[in-house]
Design brief:
By secondary structure, the protein is of the alpha+beta class. The termini are far apart. It has two domains: about 10-185, no CATH class; about 215-355, Rieske [2Fe-2S] iron-sulphur domain (Rieske Iron-sulfur Protein, 3-layer Sandwich), CATH 2.102.10. Helices cover about 35% and strands about 15% of the residues. It has helices at about 10-15, 20-30, 50-75, 90-95, 95-120, 140-155, 160-185, 255-260, and strands at about 35-40, 125-130, 215-220, 240-245, 265-270, 290-295, 310, 315, 325, 330-335, 345-350, 355. The structure holds FE2/S2 (inorganic) cluster. FE2/S2 (inorganic) cluster binds near residues 301, 302 and 303. Keywords: 2Fe-2S, Cell membrane, Disulfide bond, Electron transport, Iron, Iron-sulfur, Membrane, Metal-binding, Oxidoreductase, Respiratory chain, Transmembrane, Transmembrane helix, Transport. This is Cytochrome bc1 complex Rieske iron-sulfur subunit. It holds the Pfam family QcrA_N. It comes from Saccharothrix syringae.
């Protein structure tokens, strides 16, 4: 092949009658490409070394397929629900993220290594020089490029390497399935199965079941310690993060810990200074108890915990994208991407003087979702 451009270009009829080799040669000439070095990797076909190389490539594709399969199985069936520490179930639960990360990572890496090894071991070694030219491609160039690509496929010898083709197909297929399952997997659990359940998106752990009292619990970091809150425990201008607690859960370590882990449970209990000007939301005028107000800590933008509170201005900042909520003005957003106010938890005090929730939030907590209208 030479870098010289042919002076006599073939007619359309001649082009249609040309073999693939002739088209490849014509194409490289038209592109001003000169092949200065070309060498087959395996000039003698079927040697033991060639078969060894083939098995090595196939092995990587097989590893990719098996890891992809392991990822699919782990993603769909590994026990992912929170379990109390110091139990066998917790050990398995804690492995969920590492296992899906490792298996997916290995599937991608092994697929890449297999493709890389194939290129190094089977694609002919060649060195070509091409002159640069400007502008779009002519019809003739497009036709010859197709021939060149087909020719490259033939020279790669992939057609006669069925072991590699099968394992590469398997690896890529399983990996593709994994990519498909990722978004679909999250749709398998139907959040609307029982929309009245405290596990549905409309409710939180503050929902009372069978009329049982739900106390505001000050979490000290020790899952066994239950510290209930009285109004006098929060000083003027101060605040506490509280979680729901029921007497029926007092000796249930799993339930005690789970209540502090559930994403929509954290509530910020604030005590405003006497005389502070407060704007209440229509219909929620009695949600507070004196100077005490309880707001969901879950940002209505994308669900980060909003915990940076500035008591002078009454602004609660979400650190993720800097939304600011005005707790003096029913948790209304003042700045940033959040558009909805923080939901307020209706609270009161029971006959023993402990703060309790009068009910669950009257609206869904956290970010918007498809079925949400407000
Ligand atoms: S999650 Fe709070 S501002 Fe985005």
């Amino acid at each position: 092949m030479s870098g010289e451009k042919p002076t006599n270009l073939p007619s359309e009829a001649e082009l249609a009658g040309m073999s693939r080799d002739e088209l490849v040669k014509l194409g490289t000439n038209l592109d001003g490409v000169e092949l200065v070095h070309y060498e087959e990797r395996w000039p003698v076909k079927g040697t033991r070394a060639e078969k060894r190389a083939e098995r090595l490539v196939a092995l990587w594709f097989l590893i990719s397929a098996l890891s992809g399969l392991a990822f699919l199985v782990a993603f769909l069936w590994w026990p992912w629900k929170y379990e109390t520490p110091r139990t066998d179930a917790h050990f398995l639960y804690s492995l969920y993220t590492p296992v899906i990360g490792l298996t997916l990572g290995l599937a991608v890496v092994a697929l890449g290594v297999g493709a890389l090894l194939y290129t190094k071991k089977f694609i002919p070694e060649e060195l070509a020089v091409q002159q640069r030219h400007d502008g779009g491609s002519a019809e003739i160039d497009k036709a010859t490029v197709v021939a060149e690509l087909a020719d490259a496929g033939t020279r790669s010898t992939i057609a006669r390497r069925s072991l590699i083709k099968r394992t590469a197909g398997l690896g890529a297929g399983v990996f593709g399935l994994g990519v498909l399952v990722l978004p679909l997997g999250s749709l398998v659990r139907d959040p609307w199965k029982n929309s009245d359940s405290k596990d549905s998106l409309w409710h939180t752990g503050w929902k009372s079941e069978n009329g049982e009292k739900v106390y505001l619990r000050n979490y000290t970091g020790d899952p066994h310690e239950v510290v209930l809150v009285r109004p006098e425990d929060v000083e003027a201008g101060g605040y506490l993060t509280v979680f729901p607690f029921r007497e029926s859960e007092r000796d249930d370590e799993h339930a005690l810990v789970a209540a502090t882990k559930r994403v929509d449970n954290p509530v910020l209990l604030l005590r405003f200074r006497p005389g502070q000007q407060i704007v209440k939301r229509a219909g929620q005028e009695d949600f507070n108890y004196g100077d005490l107000y309880a707001y969901s800590k879950i940002c209505t933008h994308l669900g980060c915990p909003a915990s940076l509170y500035e008591q002078q201005t009454g602004l609660l900042l979400c650190p993720c994208h800097q939304s600011q909520f005005d707790v003096f003005h029913y948790g209304k957003p003042r700045f940033g991407p959040a558009t909805r106010a923080l939901p307020q938890l209706p609270i009161t005090v029971d006959e023993d003087g402990y703060l309790i929730a009068r009910s669950d939030f009257i609206e869904a907590v956290g970010p918007a979702f498809w079925e949400r209208k407000s």
